[in-house]
Structure formats: structure tokens, C-alpha cells
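Dig into what follows:
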Amino acid sequence: MVRPRQFTDDEILEGARRCFIEHGPGVSTNHIAEEVGVSQATLFKRFGTKQQLMVAALSPRPAASVLARLEAGPGPAPVEEQLRELAAAMAAMFDRVLPCIMTLWAAGMNPHDLWPDPEQAPPVRARRALARFFADAQAQGRMGGGDPELLALVFIGGMKEAAFQQHMLRDATAAADPDAYAATLVDTFWRGVQPLETA
């Protein structure tokens, strides 16, 4: 006798995420269950309510690899090269995260529903980690520029805007080539923050 396949929570959440983004927050749990290949009872047993499933599937969070890289601080490679890698990773992250945010907004949710403690909100953690990255690079004499907190806002804002234009405003021409966009943003940003001796 063949035992039915067991699905991990991550597999269920990925399927639910696709359903919520494609069909909106009104999609039925029956449709999600069919799409994933489990029963409705399994969905409720694992995640409680439909709203809890939606939050678990769509809560925007930086990719663990991006956050870990930021929190590790500047490595030995040239800072400009590291920024290129971070920008490419952020471009992919925002491309994935913004449709989730749009769906949660459509469901009437706001950041306080997702993160009761703003200090632990992943976007806040990522911004602060990037600010520390910049501060460390400045302290090492490997980067110039101004206030690390403001620089982090500028950098993240530039990366996020392209995904915002594409997903929120349906502008397919915005950053049609994400890699080229990330490279151009870093080139422009680096001109303002490179150490004086290399300017």
C-alpha cells in the first residue's frame, strides 16, 4: 500500500502564497488545499484559520541569506563588489516580497498586524543591518559618504522602487532587466560614497 505523500509546512505555504497572489485574499481554502494537494482539514490543523495561513504564507521578510550577509558586515572583497552582490539579492527579494505586501493590504492588514513589535520587523532589522554594514566600512576607511542610517534608506529605497513600479503600478518597463538596474544603482551610489583617495 502506497502511503500518501507528506507535505512540509514550507511546501504548503509556498502553494498558499501562489494562490493568494494569483487569486487575491478571497481565494477559498478549498482551492488552496486542492492546489497544494492536501485536505482543508490539514490546512486548518497546521495553520489554524485562513487568516493565520495567509499571514504565514505572505508575511514579508528578507531572505535569510540577505539578512545574514548584512549582519556579517563587510567582508574582505572590495565594498563596491559586495554592494553589487547585495543589490542583486535585494532585487530578487523585493520582486518576491512586494506581491505579498499588496495581497496583505488588499486583505485589510497593516504592518502592526504582522509585527506587534516594530523593532523586530524584518524590514527594520534589514535597514539597521545595512546601516551597520556601512558604518563598519566607513570606520575601516573603505567607504565615505554621510550618515549610515540615511545611506541605508537611500540604498534600500532605490532597490525597492523598481519592484514597486513593476508590481504596484504595473510598469513593465521599470527595471525590465533587474541585474542591469542593480548594477546601475550601485555604480551611481558608489560614486557618492567611495573613499576620497579613490574618488
